[in-house]
Design brief:
The complex is a heterodimer.
Chain A: H1 3-20, E1 25-33, E2 36-43, E3 49-57, H2 71-87, E4 95-105, E5 109-115
Parallel strand pairs in A: 3-4
Antiparallel strand pairs in A: 1-2, 2-3, 4-5
Chain B: E1 2-12, E2 15-26, E3 31-35, H1 40-43, H2 45-55, E4 64-70, H3 82-92, E5 104-106, E6 109-110, E7 116-117, H4 122-131, E8 136-140, H5 144-147, E9 154-158, H6 161-170, H7 198-210, E10 214-217, H8 224-229, H9 231-234, H10 240-253, E11 268-269, H11 277-281, E12 282-283, E13 289-290, H12 292-295, E14 300-303, H13 311-315, H14 318-323, E15 325-330, E16 333-338, E17 342-347, H15 366-374, H16 378-382, E18 386-389, H17 395-399, H18 407-424, H19 438-443, H20 449-460, H21 466-483, H22 490-501
Parallel strand pairs in B: 3-4, 5-8, 8-9, 10-17, 10-18, 11-14, 14-17
Antiparallel strand pairs in B: 1-2, 2-4, 6-7, 12-13, 15-16
Helix pairs in contact in B: 2-3, 7-18, 7-21, 18-21, 20-22, 21-22
Classes of the chains: A alpha+beta, B alpha/beta.
């Protein structure tokens, strides 16, 4: 596994923990179809299905991590979410799309910027 | 939710619209949305504002930024929104104290390093702000002098975004430009440079008194352009109101540098004869800019080689000549600019240009000569009162080392004569002799009996049309004013007749 993937996985792990600590249940991770991948699928204690796009960076020299999520990517996420709901027979469930930016600085310090309902 | 609001002014022609700049910063993906019908230059403001903020040591919110310019239906253009957008962004983040609504307007384009660049139309924008009850305006340093022309509103000049922030946070004013000093001794082209040309000088003076439009015909190199360029110097200086109006038009057009600020000298505009109709009367896709006719407002519009002009271009002058303003309609809206000018046309007498005297050196055929001047359309010629033939000065005139009369002397006479006509027209709708309506000419403003007899004889002899009859009378009034006659005498009428009809070439 390359460094990039490793960093990505570290970030996703961190977000998963973050969600668990807020009483979310993780339903799926790295769900992948031909059109793309959903990093995290969770369900809140109120039964809302949450799709999370995680962006991880080790420094902010190239801008805020969440800036990497362009409008087009956000819409693709929307389509993927609907696909996931169909495949898992959860049509009609309330759902939302979140974005999480994770900054891993030296010394394994994690910083999270979690945005709810970005779309 | 963080929200902030500031005000600025956008222009539709000379009319200022108050624009609210609202910024909302909310959670969501980092992004920037600009609402309110921006044009291309305005849409690019995002990247300028961002770079300027960051390079001035401020923070860019990594959140969803929504900028709304209201009223939303009004198309907006230009780069003057950069400064208000940047400041409102910082206010919304709580980094700058919020603006007190209705007190201050902000104008200016940001450079990437945070410097403030000058923009067009600051004078009319500040005028509008004052009308809307604003008491302060932050403007770019280079626009300070022009903004300062408006009295009764505090103008704060700033060099950069950092300056603006210093002012808003601490009340510190970093730059204080020298107050503008109006130059009383303006440079102008003086009539005394013109050798001889007694007849043309006289025509110029009469035209200046009555505001008559003028046509010079003459071979090349005889001084048509030279004479025309000197007309502003013999016109009365602009009044206070018209100074502001003229300066405002030039501010929008971005031609202020060509003119001395707050110049009392009437403008002189000489578009090239290949010019297009939009350049002549104004136009443009995003912002409708004033054309030559409006730049010549309260001054002189000079078209050299008028017969070479495209016909549509010359005919586009008819609306401004008639109504004193131009209305231009484009997709973004319709704009009216003032355009009250003295039209001066110059033409060669024939295609080869050498027809003068008995026309011995002219190589053109009779037909060619007639056709050449017929390119000036009848309706346009109809609006031109005075026609002068400008011939080469004689040997005697060129040899004389005596200077001709100076502009200052002539101008004094013009001012005195205009004062007389102003008194006469005190209870009328018009101010100048060239504007007396025909019916009034036949009733209240007739010439002396002998003068009228002369005109009636010319009418009988078919040497004068009904239209010409009225034109001659109007010129006669200007000549009477110049001579201090309370009513045009027979001599005045005769000289007027010669200024109008004395040119067989234009049969």
């Amino acid at each position: 596994m390359g460094t990039k993937q490793l960093i990505g996985e570290l970030g996703e792990d961190f977000v998963a923990k973050y969600l668990l600590s807020r009483n979310y249940e993780i339903l799926d991770r790295n769900w992948r179809i031909r059109e793309g991948e959903i990093d995290l699928v969770a369900i809140s204690e109120h039964g809302v299905v949450v799709f999370v796009e995680v962006k991880t960076r080790t420094n902010s020299a190239f801008g805020h991590p969440l800036e990497a999520i362009t409008r087009d990517k956000a819409y693709r996420l929307q389509r993927l979410a609907l696909a996931w709901l169909t495949v898992h027979h959860r049509w009609g469930f309330e759902y939302r799309i979140d974005a999480a930016g994770v900054l891993i600085s030296k010394g394994e310090k994690f910083e999270i910027d979690y945005r709810i309902a970005v779309l | 939710m963080s929200l902030a609001l500031t005000s600025t002014v956008s222009l539709t022609g000379l009319i200022g619209n108050l624009i609210d700049v609202e910024v909302d910063i909310s959670d969501g993906l980092p992004g920037y949305i600009l609402l309110g019908l921006p044009d291309a230059a305005l849409n690019e403001s995002k990247d300028r504002v961002r770079a300027a903020l960051v390079n001035s040591g401020e923070t860019w919110p990594n959140k969803k930024v929504t900028v709304s310019l209201s009223p939303a239906w009004l198309p907006k253009s230009g780069s003057a929104f950069d400064l208000p957008i940047a400041l409102t962004l910082l206010m919304a983040q709580g980094l700058v104290p919020k603006d007190e609504p209705g007190t201050c307007i902000y104008l200016g384009e940001l450079a990437l390093d945070g410097q403030l660049r000058s923009v067009r139309g600051v004078l009319p924008a500040v005028l509008a702000a004052k009308k809307f009850g604003f008491t302060k305006a932050l403007v770019p340093f280079n626009n300070y002098a022009e903004a300062k022309c408006v009295s009764g509103i505090e103008i704060i000049a700033i060099n950069s975004l950092v300056d603006a922030l210093k002012y808003l946070r601490l009340g510190e004013i970093s730059v204080s430009p020298d107050p503008f000093i109006s130059n009383e001794n303006e440079n102008y082209l003086d009539l005394c440079d013109v050798a001889g040309q007694v007849g043309a000088r006289r025509a110029l003076e009469v035209a200046a008194i009555g505001g008559h439009h003028l046509l010079f015909i003459g071979p090349p190199g005889t001084g048509k352009t030279m004479l025309a360029e000197r007309i502003p110097s013999i016109l009365p200086p602009l009044t206070e109101d018209s100074i502001l109006e003229v300066t405002a038009i030039h501010s929008i057009a971005g031609t202020l540098l060509d003119r001395e600020l707050l110049s009392k000298l009437p403008p002189f505009v000489a578009p090239h004869h290949t010019t297009t109709a939009p350049a002549m009367i104004g136009g443009g896709a995003h912002a409708i800019r004033p054309g030559a006719t409006s730049l010549a407002h309260q001054g002189v519009l000079f078209i050299d080689e008028a017969p070479e002009c495209a016909r549509g271009v010359l005919d586009s002058l008819r609306q401004p000549l008639e109504s004193g303003n131009v209305t231009i309609s484009r997709a973004v809206g319709s704009v009216t600019y003032p355009a009250r000018f003295m039209l001066v046309l110059a033409a060669n007498p024939c295609p080869c240009g050498r027809f003068s005297g008995r026309g011995r050196s002219c190589t053109c055929t009779q037909v060619a000569i007639r056709r050449y001047l017929q390119r000036l359309s009848g309706p346009l010629l109809d609006r031109i009162d005075i026609r002068v033939f400008v011939d080469s000065p004689s040997r005697l005139e060129m040899a004389s080392d005596e200077l001709g009369e100076s502009s200052a002397v002539v101008r004094q006479r013009v001012i005195a004569a205009r004062a007389i006509s102003k008194d006469r027209f005190a209870d009328c709708l018009w101010k100048l002799n060239s504007q007396i309506p025909p019916s009034e000419l036949r009733k209240r403003f007739r010439a002396e009996k002998l003068g009228m007899n002369f005109l009636h004889t010319e009418l009988d002899n078919e040497r004068l049309s009904a239209r010409g009859f009225h034109k001659v009378l109007r010129i006669a009034w200007s000549i009477a004013d110049a001579n201090g006659h309370s009513i045009p005498s027979r001599d005045d009428v005769e000289s007027a007749f010669r200024l109008r009809e004395g040119m067989e070439i234009l049969a």
